[in-house]
Design goal:
InterPro entries: Copia-like_N, Znf_CCHC. This is Os01g0123000 protein. One of its GO terms (molecular function) is nucleic acid binding. It comes from Oryza sativa subsp. japonica. It is rod-shaped and about 145 Å long. α4 runs parallel beside α6 and α6 packs antiparallel against α7. The longest helix has about 40 residues. Among the domains are: about 100 residues, no CATH class; about 90 residues. The chain has a two-stranded antiparallel ribbon with strand order 1-2. A two-stranded antiparallel sheet has the order 3-6. The chain is mostly helical. It has eleven helices and six strands. Helix content is about 45%, strand content about 5%.
């Protein structure tokens, strides 16, 4: 028995080959790709395509010698049995790869070519519709909320299905389909890719998109942190007054310009946030129109005006070694003296200002 089994395995190259996707009504493209690969590897594709036809049933054979005269007779062709055995091996391989519902419709086939033709006819119309749907999916799929990895993987999967169905997509076309589904946030990297002279592969484009996506995430995280810090600072200014209660009794209710009605006072302060990108008030950085515009430069006058805002730091620090301090709001100094020098301070607006007083 062992020698018999080994001889069968030696003469049947399909023994041991398993098709993971049994044919159903939904997976013809994947199934055919696996079956064709196995048959081509075993050099048996001709049995399903019809190219390997059965040999003639009889062949001629000469008998006798030349002296007495040779006779030509016809005998059964031994190659017929060999061809039939191989054909039945291919047919059995096809049957083993079918689901029960498909097998019941092609079980009457007696050759591998008949079975393959019946299966092809069964799925011909469905395959055409499937190809159209897959092409439409390539043109209409949008990245949306998917990550770059998920989006590119989905587009590649559709292209692979088309290739398995015998309709491969050109790499440049696939790149165009992928770019078409990206949102406006990716316009900078898309423009750079389109402007390239040398060709680019799908894998290279994927790397560029992934790097740009990571850059967007880092920038959004930074803007969120900056916005939260700005909101906390504005709440502190508006709710508690601009100056802490100092040693000289200059509390929130005094008359020295630091009380409830002062510019940095209590309940009537301006609670509107200041954008960290354009320095304008009334919105936060995450809502700014210029948050992804790397070429945008804020208005210098607005930037200069923003430097006059008096920030409050309530923390205490060890002596920094500074001998002089400068401020644009002299009423915040407990003690001040006139500056006698000629130096000037240039603000962000570009204007030079001579400071007449500083603290002592």
């Amino acid at each position: 028995m062992a020698s018999s089994s080994s001889s069968i395995a030696a003469t049947n190259p399909l023994v041991g080959i398993q098709v993971s996707e049994k044919l159903t009504k939904q997976n013809y493209a994947l199934w055919s790709a696996q079956v064709l690969t196995a048959l081509r590897g075993a050099r048996l594709e001709g049995f399903i395509s019809g190219k390997t036809t059965p040999p003639p049933a009889e062949i001629e054979k000469k008998e006798g010698d030349k002296k007495e005269g040779e006779k030509t007779i016809k005998i059964a062709n031994p190659a017929v049995d060999e061809w039939f055995a191989t054909d039945q091996q291919v047919l059995g391989f096809l049957f083993s790869s079918l689901s029960r519902e498909i097998l019941s419709q092609v079980a009457g086939a007696t050759t591998a070519a008949q079975a393959w033709q019946a299966i092809s006819d069964m799925f011909a119309s469905k395959s055409r519709a499937g190809l159209i749907n897959m092409r439409l999916a390539l043109t209409s799929t949008q990245k949306g909320t998917m990550s770059v990895t998920e989006y590119v993987a989905k587009m590649r999967a559709i292209a692979d299905e088309l290739a398995a169905a015998g309709k491969p997509i050109d790499q440049d076309d696939l790149i165009a389909y992928i770019i078409n589904g990206l949102d406006a946030n990716f316009d900078p990297v898309v423009e750079a890719l389109v402007a390239r002279v040398e060709p680019i592969t799908v894998q290279e484009m994927y790397s560029h998109l992934l790097n740009f996506e990571n850059k967007i995430r880092l920038r959004q995280a930074f803007l969120t942190a900056s916005t939260n810090a700005a909101n906390r600072n504005n709440v502190t200014r508006g709710g508690r007054g601009g100056m802490p209660r100092g040693r000289g009794g200059r509390g929130g209710g005094g008359r020295g310009g630091n009380g409830g009605r002062g510019n940095n006072g209590g309940g009537r302060g301006d609670n509107r946030p200041t954008c960290q990108v354009c320095n304008k008030r009334g919105h936060v950085a995450s809502d700014c129109w210029h948050r992804f515009d790397e070429t945008y430069v804020p208005d210098e006058k607005i930037g200069g005006a923003a430097t006059h805002a008096y920030g409050i730091d309530t923390n205490w620090y060890v002596d920094t070694g500074a001998t002089d301090h400068i401020t644009s709001q002299l009423d915040k100094l407990t003690t001040k003296e006139k500056y006698q020098g000629t130096d000037q301070i240039h603000t962000a607006s570009g204007e030079g200002q001579g400071h007449e007083e500083n603290n002592s």
